[in-house]
């Protein structure tokens, strides 16, 4: 990868933060009332009412698809010149401490709002979350994306472990192609929603196992990997054709997701708006990476701010749904006007995310890395001693 592109890309931290914010607005300002059985509605006691916020709020879920593309790009950059051990430690320390902290806060939020769920059931959900169990129920429904991310990470880890980094691009092209073909088939089958074919595709769409196989969202990870390849190596027409294909597949997935939202809420959604949001984000992505050398010349305070926004994104994503919903409901029940309550909730969640990214998360990450280093040193020492004894 060219020097300026191998460095930190501040534009991606801004894009990541934007994605987290629109997902937060979607859950707090739309899902909280449009889907009464959802966790954010339950945590807020169903008192939120933003039915006049139907212009953009219903489409913030497209931020998840943006996350997946960023992961495809960033993870392959980190994996390209990493060992399997270093990659595993970096991913573990990036994912696990944040979940341990935020899941604990979500558990406390559930206990405080008193929605009638038994504490033992909440604790079981908490354990499944902090243990990264691949299937719910989790302490917060947003944790569904973690299993999908981990499956992608696991694939990268296996390729590193077997020294097959050169296979990353062709394998991801294959995964992206399978995902795109699935959504082409789904779109075709959806023309007759009473057909057996559509029923079959719907079963796959709802399947957690298919999610973990990256059938539904593999196209986004593949798009990110192809963007990495485009900017790091000599691009070809074939590569651009793959990008166009995966862009189409991504739009078809988003259109299918719109149908899913329709089924859950009974409301009508146009797939055009979330497609425009995602495609606009991809255009920004392209510009940010292509002009990274210029971005690196921004003032230090600006780069530090962008980096902090990027670090806040993970706890923000993990906190906003249940913890944010509990705050929103409490504010409204205290007599605070809905719009002010929403603004206050967002401010509190942002402040808490900043604090987590600044204080407890780095400390826990440092301790986790130190533990891995200690265990590795002991293992190497034991292996060395065993080798000497065997030689003797």
Strand content: under 5%
Q: What does the radius of gyration come to?
A: 22 Å
Taking the sheet with the most strands, its summary is: none
Mean pLDDT, to the nearest integer, reads: 92
- Provide the domain count: 1
N-to-C SSE series? HHHHHHHHHHHHHHHHHH
How many individual β-strands? 0
Structural class assignment:
mainly alpha
Give the N-to-C terminal Cα separation: 48 Å
Low-confidence spans: 1-6
Percent of residues in helices: over 70%
Our count of helices gives 18
Shape: globular
Notable traits:
mainly alpha, 18 helices, acyltransferase, Acyl_transf_3_dom
3D architecture notes:
The protein has helices spanning 3-6, 10-34, 39-43, 62-80, 84-113, 119-130, 144-161, 168-189, 196-206, 208-212, 218-232, 237-265, 272-290, 292-295, 300-319, 322-333, 338-358, 360-391. The longest helix is centred in the C-terminal third of the chain and has 32 residues, at 360-391. The protein has one domain (3-45, 53-373). The chain is mostly helical and 392 residues long. α2 (10-34) packs antiparallel against α13, α4 packs parallel to α7 (144-161) and α8 packs across α9. It comes from Steroidobacter flavus. GO terms for molecular function: acyltransferase activity. Residues 10-357 form the Acyltransferase domain. Its EC number is 2.3.-.-.
């Amino acid at each position: 990868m060219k020097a300026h592109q191998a460095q930190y890309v501040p534009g991606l931290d801004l894009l990541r933060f934007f994605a987290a914010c629109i997902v937060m607005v979607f859950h707090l300002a739309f899902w909280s009332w449009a889907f009464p059985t959802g966790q954010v509605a339950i945590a807020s006691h169903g008192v939120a009412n933003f039915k006049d916020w139907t212009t953009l709020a219903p489409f913030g879920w497209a931020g998840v698809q943006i996350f997946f593309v960023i992961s495809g790009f960033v993870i392959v950059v980190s994996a390209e010149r990493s060992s399997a051990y270093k990659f595993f430690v970096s991913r573990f320390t990036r994912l696990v401490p944040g979940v341990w902290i935020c899941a604990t806060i979500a558990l406390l939020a559930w206990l405080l709002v008193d929605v009638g769920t038994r504490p033992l059931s909440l604790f079981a959900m908490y354990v499944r979350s902090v243990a990264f169990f691949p299937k719910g129920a989790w302490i917060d429904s947003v944790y569904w994306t973690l299993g999908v991310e981990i499956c992608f990470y696991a694939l990268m880890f296996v390729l590193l472990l077997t020294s097959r980094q050169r296979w990353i691009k062709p394998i991801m092209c294959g995964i992206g192609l399978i995902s795109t073909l699935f959504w082409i088939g789904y779109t075709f089958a959806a023309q007759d929603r009473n057909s057996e074919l559509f029923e079959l595709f719907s079963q796959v769409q709802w399947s957690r196992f298919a999610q973990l196989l990256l059938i539904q969202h593999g196209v986004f990870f593949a798009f990110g990997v192809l963007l990495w390849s485009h900017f790091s190596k000599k691009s070809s027409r074939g590569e651009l054709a793959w990008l166009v294909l995966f862009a189409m597949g991504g739009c078809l997935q988003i259109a299918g997701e719109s149908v899913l939202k329709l089924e859950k809420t009974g409301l009508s959604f146009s797939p055009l708006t979330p497609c425009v949001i995602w495609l606009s984000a991809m255009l920004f992505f392209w510009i940010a990476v292509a002009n990274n050398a210029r971005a690196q010349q921004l003032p230090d305070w600006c780069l530090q701010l962008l980096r902090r926004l990027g670090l806040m994104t993970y706890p923000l994503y993990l906190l906003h749904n249940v913890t944010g919903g509990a705050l929103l409901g409490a504010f409204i029940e205290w007599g605070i006007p809905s719009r002010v309550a929403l603004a206050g909730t967002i401010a509190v969640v942002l402040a808490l995310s900043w604090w987590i990214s600044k204080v407890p998360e780095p400390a826990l990450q440092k301790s986790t890395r130190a533990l891995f280093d200690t265990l590795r040193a002991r293992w190497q020492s034991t292996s060395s001693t065993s080798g000497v004894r065997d030689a003797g």
